[in-house]
Amino acid sequence: MSPLCLAGPTGCGKTAAALAIARRQPVEIISVDSALVYRGMDIGTAKPTPDELASVPHHLIDTLEPTQSYSAAQFVRDALRLVPEIQARGARPLLVGGTMLYFKALFDGLSELPQADPALRAQLDAEAARDGWPAMHARLAALDPETAARLAPLDAQRIQRALEVCLLSGEPMSVLYRRQRSQGVDWPLLSLEPSDAARAWLHARLAQRFAAMLEQGFVDEVRRLRARGDLHLGLPSMRCVGYRQAWELLDADEAAPDMAALQELGTAATRQLAKRQITWLRSMPARRVVTAESPDAIDGLVSLTT
Asked: Does residue 142 sit in the same domain as residue 17?
């Protein structure tokens, strides 16, 4: 059975939609979420409940300690390993989440471009100062005519990067980009997202969601993480929305943090996350959008999966 992807901004009902799909067809869920991989971070990440996790097989949840990091490249490798394993068991892989960078890496393929090299960049800058950027553009045209053709002769930053890639990798940037795109997947993407007119609806949901997390004991969860002694705000896990805000308020007053301030800061951070997620989604034209605020959103989404 072909894989299916389900994306959407935070708080729009992706978990409920995924479980509804699971009730209609045999699926295994692959989490596409950079926070759900961490053990001990349950309330603030809106991790599926134990009952929900037990109702359908889930993958890439609770796989790492919060001291560890997890990248888009690791996600792609894990997802591409899991998909055929799930299919071999007669189930449909259902990739669900809101980490859009992971979806982008999956659809576009992983970049093979080399990292920046400060010494080489300094050398190229010196040569450009001596010969001029049009001459550097001509040099690029000899190495990578396809890339040079789409760059202006005075586009210093892009000419420098294209030359850097050619010299470090031994291959034209255009070749590396084609190879990257060829490695991407072409799986259908459903997007559960609010309409432009539903901004107030989304903001109200996000405020209610964060308030519910506080009632469920989110601050105590962060206290337990702080008490481990091996975590700090420099870690990717502790920079997750809500955790950083709670950590900083506990720094100010461990015994009695300002809960009203946390509600305000956490809700604002969640709204900013949702805005970024929607921006990412709108750069993915192949997606099929289901209007999240519609009363029959989940039924409509499920009908698109058969």
From this structure: no
pLDDT in tens, 244-279: 999 999 999 988 999 999 999 999 999 999 999 999
- Tell me the sheet residues that pair with 38: 64
252, amino acid identity: A
pLDDT, tens digit (0-9, with 9 covering 90-100), for 118-154? 999 999 999 999 999 999 999 999 999 999 999 999 9
- Predicted TM-score (pTM) of the model is 0.83
Whether 171 and 298 share a structural domain: no
What is the tens place of the pLDDT at every residue in 84-101?
999 999 999 999 999 999
- In terms of domains, do 79 and 127 share one? no
pLDDT of residue 179: 82
- C-alpha atoms less than 13 angstroms from C-alpha of 203 in its C-beta half-sphere: 8
Residues 6+ positions from 191 with CB-CB distance below 8 Å? 6, 7, 8, 281, 284, 287, 288, 289, 290
Give the Cα separation of 39 and 66 in Å (integer).
7
CA dihedral 72, 275, 213, 191 (to 10 degrees): -70
Residues 188 and 136 in one domain: no
CA atoms within 13 A on the CB side of 131: 15
